[in-house]
Design brief:
By secondary structure, the chain is an alpha/beta fold. Helix content is 36%, strand content 15%.
Length: 321
């Protein structure tokens, strides 16, 4: 097995991958993301990772409450059900980290990052590791009950992880806040509500929006996003498929034009692989009901392969600089 491009922190066993399906759209404003895990499986995710020499264990799907499709209550839609799903995910993902495996959470909508990242943060506290979260998304996901126009909690996970949200969600993982703003980098942002924009700015989150990427280039943005990642860093990637331009990734419920191209997205994944520090991954918001021939799921699998070291040619260390 070639682990040169994949050698995460020493608390994990290089090459051991666990897939965790979380089939719910409980936090979204449109039905369909619950089918995301199966679409990724149909697109051959496990087989693709196995062909890279990785030991892949599919843990199957978690089982939580159905989506009742109700209106918001006190600024939140489906809060009790969102809490249940995230608690289940937190425990499942933390268990895989304890077993020294690299978990890939197959969503499901992006509210699930509350459960996955709180588990990763808990693991980092246990191991004395630094945490860096790369948040690839068209949206900042820093809404609150007073700011949200919809009450959909998939627009709130970063706020909740940073301690701004209902007590039931912010305390998952046993530490409030689960995440410090300085630990997260947001990449590809291009749709942010006005009040949300002020809060993101006030919190000091480092954001590489599409204007920045257009002006400075994706390579420069990623170099800054990965700055100071070292051997003591647990690198977590939270990949919302709407990060991509809808021209190449139509299978999402919240498309925003003007996203990264295929090559820009591949560059992001390849630069992460070059660090050798990837230690956990979310893949969320894939909605097969809106896809065309499963092409968005296949693209997601393609990008995940690049995260784990697949490249066109072997490149020397000098060539990577």
């Amino acid at each position: 097995m070639n682990t040169s491009a994949f050698s995460p922190d020493t608390a994990l066993a290089p090459g051991n991958i666990s897939l965790i399906g979380v089939p719910t759209d409980i936090g979204a404003g449109m039905l369909g993301a619950r089918m995301g895990p199966e679409a990724l499986r149909v697109a051959g995710l496990a087989q693709a990772l196995t062909q890279l020499g990785l030991d892949v264990k599919d843990c199957g799907n978690l089982h939580g409450p159905a989506n009742p499709w109700l209106q918001a209550v006190n600024g939140f839609r489906h809060l009790p059900q969102v809490v249940q799903w995230n608690q289940l995910l937190h425990e499942a993902l933390y268990c895989e980290l304890q077993a020294r495996r690299l978990p890939i959470m197959l969503g499901g909508d992006h509210c699930l990052a509350i459960g996955s990242i709180s588990a990763v943060a808990r693991h980092c506290r246990d191991q004395g590791k630094k945490l860096r979260v790369l948040w690839f998304d068209a949206h900042a996901d820093f809404n609150t009950a007073t700011l949200t126009p919809s009450g959909n909690i998939h627009g709130m996970p970063v706020a909740c992880l940073c301690g701004h949200g209902p007590q039931e969600l912010i305390q998952i993982g046993g530490h409030v806040p689960a995440l410090q703003p300085k630990q997260i980098r947001q990449i590809g942002i291009r749709s942010v509500d006005a009040g949300e924009k002020r809060l993101v700015h006030d919190m000091g989150i480092e954001v590489f929006d599409m204007r920045y990427i257009d002006e400075m280039g994706m390579r420069h943005a990623m170099e800054l996003a990965l700055a100071l990642v070292d051997a003591n860093t647990h690198l977590h990637v939270s990949l919302d498929v709407d990060f991509l331009d809808p021209a190449i990734a139509p299978g999402v419920g919240t498309t925003v034009r003007g996203g990264p191209t295929y090559r820009e997205a591949q560059l992001c994944m390849e630069m992460i692989a070059d660090t050798g520090r990837l230690a956990s991954l979310d893949v969320v918001e894939l909605n097969p009901a809106l896809d065309v021939g499963n092409q968005t799921a296949e693209l997601a699998v393609d990008l995940i392969e690049s995260l784990f070291g697949k490249s066109t040619l072997m490149r020397s260390s000098a060539a990577k600089r």
